Predict the structure.
Amino acid sequence: MALPSEERQPRLLRVLAGEPLSPPPIWLMRQAGRYLPEYRAVRAQAGGFLELCYTPALAAEVTLQPIRRYGFDAAILFSDILVVPDALGQRVEFVEGEGPRLDPIRSAPDLARLNAGATRPKFARVCETVARLRQDLPREAALIGFCGAPWTVATYMVGGQGSADQREARLWAYRDPVGFGRLMEMLVEASIDYLAMQVAAGADVLQIFDTWAGNLPAREFEAWVVVPTRRIVTAIHAKHPEVPIIGFPRGAGQKIARYVAETGVQGLGCDTGMDVAHMRSLASSIKVVVQGNLDPMALIAGGEALRAQTDALLQGLAGVPYIFNLGHGILPETPVEHVAELVELVRGKG
Ligand code: CP3
């Protein structure tokens, strides 16, 4: 029987503790962002994108915008996975309409430009946003902190920008696994420190985004996705055993059950390609809480596509611990009214 204190817990936390809820809690990856006019207004006021991430009053404001508009069950800290390379001293810039640009790190001398001891002041600014949110969030909304997984962050640090094939990181990892391993080691340590600071500041849940986990063969997946993620999960749980961690190894495909078993995550972010039946079988066979995986394109399209896919998820995952979400981040061209319709569909008022 549920204790009264559990009844007052945010619904997202109840599901992450293994309780199936109907309707399921809902939040959307990248729910704060350019599809919202109120985000674009604050973004214009902030100047640069990283300035927005490092200005607690503005970052807290944009975190709260989607909560006010839609009443989502969770807020995700407004920041970016590339705050970690920036804090390590790599030059990171966000170019309007083009995405992130970094001075690439591809060798031992490049690595020497990073300073693992210098990250705290920037992490502390982000954590000031977390502390403000802890105060300002309605108590029924959970607060999600996050970082990029070391592999995904490394693909940007080595490539200098996003790429479809992550070629520079993959080539460095094959040609010089020891050198690349030093970069990964630095990222594991920085990520543990950053996430632990977010929890200390008030984050209830953590998500580790491994957007580019999908292009690796089994051995490399183990070395660069599973092992670093397990180290982060183990270190955070040693300090904060109560904090659930959601892994999002996008594109992991057949390697997904092993990822869950070996990393020790409580939640699994499922990408758009995963079958609802497979999500259900993972939730019941290996006791992981599944999250996802509506196609962000179906949310742009709206109408019948949105209704059918939403229904399939709600029906297919009824009775297992499940968090409604997208299979990848919401896209800037998403109509705001489609998001409102989605929330109504999930909550049974559609
Ligand atoms: O609302 C939230 O989810 C919280 C904030 C958040 C952002 N980025 C804000 C952001 C989160 C959790 C992220 C994660 C992130 N950042 C990932 C992993 C998730 C994913 O979508 O795959 C990755 C790979 C990045 C790196 C990144 N940041 C890229 C490639 C880009 C450019 C492309 C784009 O979507 O614009 C960003 C910029 C970025 N991060 C924006 C936002 C709102 C847009 C920048 C702007 O407003 O000018």
About this structure: The mean pLDDT is 96. DSSP finds 17 helices and nine strands in the chain. The two ends are 31 Å apart (CA to CA). The CA atoms of residues 290 and 322 lie 5 Å apart.
